[in-house]
Amino acid sequence: MTVPSVRPSKKERRHIPRTHVPEQDPATRAHNFEEVNLGFTAEMARLEAMRCLECKVPKCVDGCPVGVRIEEFLSLVAEGSYAEAARVIKLDNSLPAVCGRVCPQENQCEGACILAKTGDSVAIGALERFVADFERTNGLSRVEMPAVSTGKRVAVVGSGPAGLAAATDLIKAGHAVTVFEALHELGGVLVYGIPEFRLPKQIVQAEIQALEKMGVEFITNAVVGQTTTIDALFDEGFSAVFLGVGAGLPKFTNVEGENLVGVYSANEFLTRVNLMRAYRPKSDTPIIGVAGKTVAVFGGGNTAMDAVRTAMRLGAARAVILYRRAEEQMPARVEEIAHAKAEGVEFKLLTAPVSFGGTDDGWLRTVELQEMELGEPDESGRRSPVPIEGGIYEMPIDVAVIAVGNNANPLLRRNEPSLGYTRWGTVIADETSGRTSRTGVWAGGDIVSGGATVILAMGAGRRAAADINRYLETGVFEVAAE
Ligand code: FAD
Ligand code: SF4
Asked: Does the C-beta of 102 come closer than 6 Å to ligand 2?
């Protein structure tokens, strides 16, 4: 459909079909690490943005955890003002090229869009990505230089979305900001977890470079709680500390045989591929035995989809998702599930591992599986899986990847006893301000909420930054209840 020269009436807009984002062909992309979604062209973007009904009370905005002014940016896209649209998004979201690619829009803005009730919502995520990419690739990103220096120093611990969002708002407020990152690369899960074919690393790097240009200092290989401490940061002259250290400790299923060679946590599997380039033929950290073999991934979230689709790209002959509940209960984004299926991933639903079996010298060979059915709802409200009597069988596998969630890394709890922790090891912090139980220390993102989403981590980083700004002005800090 061609783009009308004049914006159609609201009645006519309802007849414009949703424009789907072009993708690499599934048979081709299942064997490469290039980005799957190719993004809208300018014509596609304008036509899609014209579908917006410009609601007086835009439900889409209520659905966005950081309140992006969606109807305003869509109007600008519809009239072809793409750089201005990017500026409007960035008032509320400093990482639109990331969020446009990885946010679960179907549960957020697009799920709340009024058009979702009668058919297809506006493709808000794809449009967000389009304007952010347009701004970056045309060199139109404006680096907003900080206001007058306040002379105050703030330490941000962790360079994932929570840390990056906090650092952005803190430097804009005129503080000197230093980000301490435990790994040798910056970006947190955006870099070591989410694969290149979903979120190219250069996009995250561009965001980090923009922060560097604004004056943020980044120190890598710096582990707070180990190579330095919160006390040491205050002694060095930092007036406030924000902890955005994520939840990077993998959970396991704890079934027999999980220590066999060939069983990986999803963290290790994805980190080797993403950060240590294990997909390259001469990598120092190869993933042994994937090419031509059967890879079983246990879990139903984004991490499981990323691991199984990575296994396909590493040449697995069979890449299988095994999930103990049903498909409608999978926490993964709908798009990731659809993409995995199109690429040839097999799904074994209502199936749980009982034990892993291996050779005498410790190599994984089989998994014993239990068929499940759905029973009564559990505390999460989802119907819980119940074993079917006698439904046990064995499946030969060569590699298993466990993707059943993450806990908080115990390092902080062990070495920073001045903070309050929950029984799951997450840091206790006030939901709206991010204030912890220690004066001058804030926390946000997965280290507080447990494994969640990029946009929620960013929202927490921004709220904490606002509270830090207030504290540095007033000196008032009310500690979070332990
Ligand atoms: P992180 O991104 O985990 O960043 C924390 C950073 O702190 C890391 O770089 C870590 O190395 C560093 N750090 C840890 N301890 C220390 C220390 N002691 N000192 C210094 N630095 C430290 N969410 C979505 O919205 N959409 C998706 O599609 C999606 N896909 C995902 C796929 C995978 C494989 C995974 C694992 C998660 C995915 N998520 C997704 C969830 C999302 O990535 C996280 O919720 C988000 O990254 C949390 O941000 P964060 O800043 O709190 O933590
Ligand atoms: Fe446009 Fe949907 Fe938002 Fe209404 S709810 S303003 S139609 S995107």
From this structure: no
